[in-house]
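Hi everyone,

Forwarding the result from last night's run.
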Amino acid sequence: MVKQYQATKQGGPFALVNVSKPSPSAEEVCIRPKAVALNPLDWKNLKFGFMVQAWPAVFGIDGAGVVESVGERVTSFKAGDEVFSLAGMEPKAGAFQEIYTVPEHQVAKKPSNLSFEEATSLPICYLTAAASIVLGLKIPLPSIGKPDPITPPPSSILVLGASSAVGAIAVQLLRLALGPSPTIITTSSPAHHTQLLSLGASKCLDRSAQDNPTTIKSATPGGNGVDAILDPVTAAASQPSVFEALNPAGPKLYSQVVTGQNPQVPEGVKARQVFGPGIFGVPGGMQAIRYLAQLVEEGKFQLPVKVEVVGNGLESIEGGLKRLMRGVSGMKLVVSL
């Protein structure tokens, strides 16, 4: 038997429940997590049943740990390997349990220079940033791309809420994909500007600029505005004037991470909502997690935000989610197991 940390119903409470030890199917990997990350989706699922099919439910979409067992067709991993992965939404796939089970393509070997706590902070945020770029902006990443990339690629991009993990990763991936020339403008509180510049941002603006398109345009070449907006936090829902920062002569792209909010997108703006696992459907996308591990190992990727351990053990998760619900900035909350 193994323990699952189940949300018994919408709104809670949680319960620690004994269930049968899982066995992987042919192409699955069973992982015993050593650390799990806490994400907004977790508390939204608990409070609103955002993506819950049935109760009780097991949450947790990021995990890092040790391979317990593998299916007969799995060739990349074996029992005892240290790995990190995207977890899932089914009871067997949620990371908030002693052993979770996921498809092989969602798993990569943990980079040796990351702790389990650091590694678990990355998967869903990285996949979401990658999807925002490849699917939302049609900009291929090295090893991951689309057959119909935009030509020419955007020369100026605005990343809203860039101090979020998704936003900070997007800055890094955009710089890797586009090289040194394009202008990457970010919005965040000033406390995060130094970090964002180190990740590849060209210019950092205060969050208040999201209500002042003139300020944003003045930061672009020629003051013409940006070609594209990447919005990890759906800032445009409450600050729709940000669309006025788009260059009227440019491609006018808007890539929005699914958050449960729907901004009013002006006519003529090419908008796309994205969710992290969507990246698996593009050419090379099934290798996306392994590409992240490679970038980390090669020193081409930095942790996007600070990682804070908020507890030890599955029963620490509830308190961590309450803190996350109250709001954090420039930080990823994780629980050690």
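The chain is about 20% helix and 25% strand.

Cheers,
N.
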